[in-house]
C-alpha cells in the first residue's frame, strides 16, 4: 500500500475522474441550459469554479511532487479529505437548486449528484489510504486492537446520539445550525471510523509473519467466511427471496450476485489468501499469479461497496450487518499486502519487470474473460436480430440457440424491476458493461425478445391480442380531440415539375371540459406523394418540424407527453402499414390547435383526412401520360395510372409452393402432412413445377417435389415455426426473378397460431393455410396476417397483370388496379448522394426507390441506414425511417439530437424502451444506470436532512 504515496496516483485517481466529471456535466448542461433559471446558473458557475480550483490545485501539487521526487504528504491527505468532503456536502445541500424542478428529468438521464459522487469518491479513498500509510510507518510497533476500538467509538457515539430526542437536541438552536452540526458530525464520524478501521486491518497485515496461527484465522475470517456470508445475506438466503411459484428471484440487496461463479471465486480467493508462505520459489510464483488473477475480484467488490462504506456505520448501529459491508475494504487491504509480500520475496529470484507484467496480466484475466463472453453474446444476439429483422436472403444461417437463450435471459433479468428494499436484479457495473457492449446502451423490447424466443427456441407465441392491447388502450377514451377544419393550398412548381401542397388542420376538443387531450389521425398517401415539411403552431408562433430519426423522435415525443408540465409537441411519421400518422399534444379545453403538412406530388391527388375528402392540385390540368424516371442513371420510374394502362396485360401461370411446419412443436405430425396434401392438393402437389420448403427457425428448400416426404422425415427440427421469414424469402425470390409463373403459397401446419408472423405478388395478396382437419383458410400478406378469410374457390382464376416495360423482357409485373406504381430499373441501388435527384420530388422518388429496394435487401440496413437517414435529412423528405417533430424549446431539441446520435450509432433492431411508436411511455433510466450505485452516502444524508423537523 505504500506505493499509493507515489504522486502519480493523483493523476489517475483525481485528475482523470475530475476531467470525466467535467465533460459529463458539461454535456448535460448544454442540453438543459436554456431551462435553468439565473440563480441556478450562478450555482453552476460557482461549483464549476470550485471543482476547477480543487482539480488544478491537486494537479499542480502532483506535478511538483513528481518533479521533486517526493511522495504524497500528510497535509495533502488531510486537506483533500476535508476539502472534497465539504464539496460533496455543499453539492448535496444545493442539489435541488442546481437542477431545479423546472428541468424535466428525462432530459438528464442520471442525477448529477450521482456523477459528482462517483468521480469524487476515488480521491477520498486515495486520501484515506495514504493517510493510513503515513500514520503507520514501518519499523515501529503498532497496536491493531486500539485502532479497532477507536473505530467503533464513532458508531457508539452515534447510537447514543440517536437515543436523544431530536426536539431536545434542537432546543435553543436554529434549524440550519442543527443541520450543519448533524451533517458535520456524521461526516467526521464516518471519516474517523474508516480511518481507524483501515489502519487496524493494515497493522494486522504488517504482522503477518509474527503469529502465523492468528494470521491464518484472520485471513480465513475476512477472506473466506465473511465474503460468503455477505453473498448469502445479499441474496436473501437467510430470509428468503423466492418469487411466485417457488422460483428463486435473481436479485439482491446490493445487486444480483446469485451467479454460482461469485461463490466459486469467493472460495478460490479465500483459499489463495489463506495459503501459508512457502520457501519454494515456483510454488510462491504460482500462488502470486493466482492471487493476481483474483485481485480483480477483490477490487470489484471494493468498488461496488465503496459508496456504501459511509453507510456501514448506520448498518452497524441499526442491524449489525454493517460489518459485512466493510469486508471488501478490509479484504482489499489484506489482498494488496499479500501481493506486496509475494512480490518482495520473488524479486530475489525473478526480474521485477516480469513480475509486474505477471501481476498486470493476472489482474486483467477475469475482465478479459468477461469481455470475451460479452463479445460472444453480442455476436449471437446481433446475428439473431439480423436473421429476424434484416436477413441476407442469399446466406445460410445457423445460430447457437443455447447462447442466444442465455443472452436473452440476461436482458430480461436487467429489465426486471426491483422489489422491496432490494436494489434490483442488476449486477453492479457488469450489467452496465453488458448493456454497453452487447446492447449499445439501448434495450430489446419484450415483443422482440418473445419473437426471438419463438423463432429460435420454439417457445409459445405471444397471445394474439398482445400486439393490439397498447393501441386499444390508447384509443378507448370516447372524448378526444377531433378535426374542426381542413383547408389546403397548392401551387405547381415548374422547377420541380411537381405540385407543392399544404394541408392545414385545425383540431379542437369535442368535449370542451377536457383539460388536455391528444389528437391523432392517419392518412394514406398515393404512390409518388412525399411528405416535404411540417409545422405546428405553438404559443402564437409557427414552429417548423425537425426531420429526425424516427425512434428518437417518437421517444422524445412520448417523454414530453408524460411530463407533468404540459409542453407542445407534434409528431408526424409513417406507421407499419405505410400510412402517415399525425399526433398533436395537448389540445386544451376550447383552444384549437393548428398544424400543417407539406406534400410533394407529381399529379393532383385526392386524400381522405378524418373522413373528409380534399383534392390537392388542379384536377382539370392536363393529365400526365408518360412515366417519369429519375435523372442520371434512371434508377427508379414513377409509372402513373394512365401510363400503366398502356402496358400490355399478361396472365401468368400459377404453381403451388407448400411451406411445411417442421418446428420443434409441429414436427411430430410430419407423416400426416402427406395424407393431408394428397387429400386436398393431390394434383397440384404432383405437378413437377410444385415446390416444397421445410420451415422451422430456418427455411430449407426441398430440391425436387418427389423428395419432400423423405426430407421431412429426416429433418432435425430447430426452434419455432418462423413462417414470416419463409414468406419473405419466397417473395424476395419472386421479386428478384420475375417470370411467366408465380407461386400460390400453401402453409401446412397443425396450429397456425404458433407461427411467427409480421410485395412482389401482384396477382394476389393472399396465402392459404391447410389445417390439421383438412380445412383451408386464406390470409393476407399485407395486413393482419393472422385473421382468416373465407375461401370461395381455389385455385382462383389467375388475374391479369401489367408487364413492365413490356412482354419481351419484363423487369416487373404490376397489379392492374388503375393506380400509379413505382418500379426499380436496376438490380442494385445505392443511397442517393447530395444533388443526385435533381429536384426535391425526384429526390423523393430516389429515396422511395431505395427504400423499396432495401425492403428486399434488408442485409444492407445496418451498413446503409445512417447514410439513408442523412440523405432524408438533406432532402427534407420523410421516409419510413424518419419523422417530423415540432418542439417548443431549445432544450427539447438538444435532447432529441443527443438521443438521435445514440440511436444512429447502435444496431437498427434495438429499441430505446418498451414502447411502440404509438404509445407514450414512462421515462426510462438511460445508459448511466450503474451510477445509481455511486451515491449511497449522499442520498442517505439528503433524505435524512429532508426528514428533519423544523
Automatic annotation (TrEMBL):
Membrane-spanning segments: 43-63, 75-92, 112-133, 145-168, 180-204, 216-240, 260-276, 288-307, 313-334, 354-375
**Location of the VIT domain:** 469-601
Q: What keywords are annotated for this sequence in UniProt?
A: Membrane, Transmembrane, Transmembrane helix
- The organism's superkingdom is given as Bacteria
InterPro entries (alphabetical): MSEP-CTERM (IPR027550), VIT (IPR013694)
Q: Protein name, please?
A: MSEP-CTERM sorting domain-containing protein
